[in-house]
Amino acid sequence: MRAIAAGMGLGMLLAGASAWTQSNPQPQQAAATPPVASTTSPDYSSIYCSNFVTSEAGSDTRLISGEESNSKIVFAQRDIVYISKGSSQGVHVGDRYSVYRPESDPLDVQWFKWQNKLMKAMGTFYLDAGQVKVISVQPNVSIAEVTFACNYLQRGDFVRPWQERPMPPFKPAEKFDSFAPVDGKSIGMIVVGKDFGQLYGKLQPVYVNLGTNQGVNVGDYMRIFRYQGGGVQTVANFDDFQYKMYGFGSTPVAYKWNDLPREMLGEGIVLNVSPNSSTMLITLSKKDIFSGDYVEIE
After folding, report:
1. What is the pTM (predicted TM-score) of this model?
2. Do 182 and 261 touch, CB atoms closer than 8 A?
3. Which of 36, 101, 202, 256 has its C-alpha lying 20 to 30 A from 54's C-alpha?
4. Is the Cβ–Cβ distance between 225 and 265 less than 8 Å?
5. What contacts 163, CB < 8 A, 6 or more positions away?
6. Residues 96-139: tens digit of each pLDDT
7. CA dihedral sign, ordered 213, 215, 221, 224
8. Does residue 81 contact residue 104 with C-beta atoms inside 8 Å?
9. Phi, psi of 276 (to 5 degrees)
10. SS3 of 67-130
């Protein structure tokens, strides 16, 4: 009898709860939505870790050491480092500095015909190592904390006053003109990419041999293209290989590279400008982009 009574009581309780729920519907919880990253402009790392090329001389201020130097040969975020100037040279607590150093291609392999010559004309390639903030000042030395790191920092790195870099907005991809005619503006080449890579895609930085001397400004867009049948190719081949090797047939007239439309590959936005070079972030890539491909200011 007790089991029957208990079962009847539980049934009445559930029935009552069901009736109450029907008369008092509960608000539905919205499904959790992951945060969406901003796509309107480059992010902080893209701006401040893109590296740069310049013909200007390096700074006379250096990173000279840091804490735990008996066991550390490089320094990272939140480490304490020392720089070679202090209060006698005008340094104050709270000053911010950028840390950078020159770098060169360890392989030194020429990808296209004029690559080494163009790289030399552009200037010195510098790696963005990070940023530091001064927390204590002595007469000729300052103590700073590493507040942001793109790479490791090390003794001998150049140090210069931090400068804010613009974050220019992205252009909508649908506005890209795949058949844009020549506009008469300056034309250059993608000479090399970050870490001296030769193949690039979307959101990768590359270095172009156009700068302020050619009218380039931060925020400018450049379209990326290549010609057919030119003597300078990113993939080694021989003249007219399309006809001779694969048997695609022939044409009544021999069409040269300047007789045919350009092949549009994508576009990019200028993040950093020097007298003879620019750092460009690729924002649209229709297909693989290589060193030796051309760029044109839009």
Report:
1. 0.78
2. no
3. 202
4. yes
5. 98
6. 999 999 999 887 788 888 899 999 999 999 999 999 999 999 99
7. negative
8. no
9. -125, 20
10. CCCCCCCEECCCCEEEECCCHHHCCCCCCEEEEEEECCCCCCCCCCCCHHHHHHHHCEEEEEEE
Angle, alpha carbons 224-226-230 (nearest 5°): 155
Using DSSP bridges, classify how beta strands 96-102 and 52-54 pair: parallel, antiparallel or unpaired: unpaired
Would you give the DSSP letter of residue 231?
S
Intra-chain end-to-end CA distance of the chain, in Å? 89
Query: Burial, 166: exposed, middle or buried (Cβ in 10 Å; 0-12, 13-18, 19+)?
Result: middle
CB neighbours of 66 closer than 8 A, spacing ≥ 6? 72, 75, 79, 80, 81, 82
| DSSP code, position 142 | E
Q: Phi/psi of residue 62, each to 5°?
A: -130, 155
Task: Report how far residue 141's alpha carbon sits from residue 261's, in angstroms, rounded to the nearest whole number.
Answer: 59
Structure-token pair, residue 50: 């893109």
Both structure tokens of 279: 């750092």
CA atoms lying within 13 Å on the CB side of residue 257: 12
